[in-house]
Amino acid sequence: MILAHIIAKDRKQALKIINLLMDQKLLLQAVVSEKTVYEKKNAQGQLVSSKQTLIIGKTKALLFKTINDVLKTNFKTNMPMLYSVPIVYMDEELASLIRENTAKV
Fold this sequence. Notes:
The protein is of the alpha+beta class. It has one domain: Alpha-Beta Plaits (2-Layer Sandwich), CATH 3.30.70. It has helices spanning 11-23, 64-74, 92-101, and strands at 2-8, 29-40, 47-59, 81-86. Strands 2-3-1-4 form a 4-stranded antiparallel sheet, covered by helices on one side. The chain is globular and about 50 Å long.
């Protein structure tokens, strides 16, 4: 099991991504969070901030490649960033819920 982290350009794109992935049973649940990201970019080393929209979705690790392929197909421009975080321990009821309610692999 993994938490798929998808960084969208804005909330509208995030909701489109969630609908697309849930329609294909690639995510069980998703959380959307607006984040401020800080980087040192200019010559003086000052912090520059930007906004990002983070989607965190529970799914099976074996669905990661399919999720990536769906995103590449549907977002040729403004491709969201995708990476995963493994879930090391999980309540068996939640694990079963994810197995039963996501796409079969």
